[in-house]
């Protein structure tokens, strides 16, 4: 009986896949299509190896790269041509190959700074024609009835093209996408029921990145079209894509807090500070924060540019599916909604019904609201402003709130007593409180949750590393809300006015006690003037928007009770206004702003003392003091401050523009690192798909 001789180790080369052998020959400069007319048809039936293409291209030296440049140009053009093929597998493989070429081309350009990716992949002479053809094919794919996996690959390719360079101004693909806009195709993706969950995030990312390109100078079609978009279906879908990412973060945070031991304040503080901010888990959390910056930037762009969108985020959002759906689609939608964590009512309280929902909302779905989800996200993200990533995210959050709070329509919705939502806010543990989360927050207008958020920020960040920029933005949001209430004479009894006054006074007290350390870092007098002028707005115009005379009396009681804070602040302002220093004028303005609040204390304090002496009392009650205050209102003289209800409208001025540019670079880097076209198994998905091979109109499916 014959026997087979075993080969010794290493005597036989390891077999390689056919596609890898083709790649290796391709990068040696061989022309494999010569003499084989069916080569490219057969080539695109083979599953691409994205990693192999990148590895082969990067390891070439400049001389070798020049020898295979013609092969690269040919491969790119064949990929573009194949996008119009009726065979879906070939289209999917050509898209994956384009993803590999674009990704490898950008990696190569970072290795060789003199390398131009357009010249390398396409060739300067054919670039205009090839890019126009590529973009036209992309638009056709996104707007046709192609299977979701092909659309997903198309979007991945566009994302890779938009994120290859951290500085988008140096990315040549942006110019071509600007000349041949795909905005309508991306909006079409958002408006479609099928694949919105899988495709929406990439579609919104491309719109956001393109809208950030060349904001000044020549008109950016994406920025113009986004600002003019008035399709409620598209805007609501855009909002839902952003809400999904922020809501998922909220859900993970809630789960992590529930998993922590709740034995004592000390243990919870140790767990929070020790494991979240100091240990290796802090790096994970920073990564999660940065991952959500893309959603925040998308939200900022829409809120800043589109007035229609600002109103969308303050309304109750039901699913935007078209009314004609199949039973299978309805079951899928129901499952998605059950797992959707964007509804604040479901994340913390377990109350799955919302009796106060507007009648337009589908009662079969949990009520979700982007603003409520967003405020909850802000309450989480602002807890740790010591890390640069969280600080920048919090600043972007407050810029978004600034845009929202100065929009009339959004304000009218947030103040509407008929539109109430639960807004769960998460709080850092402190000595004076045990509860870290609103377990069952009440149904209130959204403005109440917004004010609660600002109050929490003011009270929880009075620390050595004082985030003065964030305080300036937070106080600006409060001012805009109060100006709207004064202008419209709105009286909401549920607004936390007492808590707001206490927080403002606590801030002023902190600024005075820490002036020697803070004055070296920023103009604390300007910030103090902001806080005092908000109190002045209450004092001067509070009768137009405070819910009752009792609220106005409570304001005076708080000012009288804490009069020493204003006196100390005035003394500090006088000290700095008399000397030669850079903040002299600012200190003078603060001294002038303190006139009324100090006058209230100086007027009522002696009268309260006289009354106490006459009544032989040492510790009067609040009601007794308020009775004295009411009887002496007429003799109080106050100065009428000008422009208390005026503010400078938000605009992207140089400091803000520089900040947004740094955020954009971070977002581009994160998206690039998390975009993996090889994760889409086109083979399996296309085999499971029953979609037609040729594009058909949507009406043909009904």
SSE order and pairing:
Elements: H1 18-27, H2 39-43, H3 50-58, H4 62-82, H5 88-111, H6 117-121, H7 127-143, H8 148-162, H9 173-179, H10 183-191, H11 196-211, H12 221-228, H13 232-259, H14 265-278, H15 280-305, H16 307-312, E1 316-317, H17 327-339, H18 344-348, E2 368-369, H19 370-381, H20 388-405, H21 408-414, E3 420-421, E4 444-445, H22 446-460, H23 468-488, H24 497-513, H25 515-518, H26 524-541, H27 549-561, H28 563-578, H29 584-593, H30 595-615, H31 622-631, H32 654-674, H33 682-688
Antiparallel strand pairs: 1-2, 3-4
Provide structural commentary:
This protein is mostly helical and 702 residues long. The chain has 33 helices and four strands. Helix 10 (183-191) runs antiparallel to helix 11 (196-211) and helix 11 crosses helix 15 (280-305).
Describe the structure concisely for a colleague.
By secondary structure, the protein is mainly α. It has 33 helices and four strands. The protein has a two-stranded antiparallel sheet. Strands 3-4 form a two-stranded antiparallel sheet.
Structural class: mainly alpha
Mean pLDDT: 83
Radius of gyration: 31 Å
Number of strands: 4
The helix tally amounts to: 33
Q: Beta-sheet strand percentage?
A: under 5%
- Identify the overall geometry: elongated
* Helical content (DSSP H or I, runs of 4+): 55-70%
Point out poorly predicted stretches. 1-11, 263-278, 318-367, 690-702
Largest sheet: 2 strands, antiparallel
Strand order of the largest sheet: 1-2
Distance N to C terminus: 68 Å
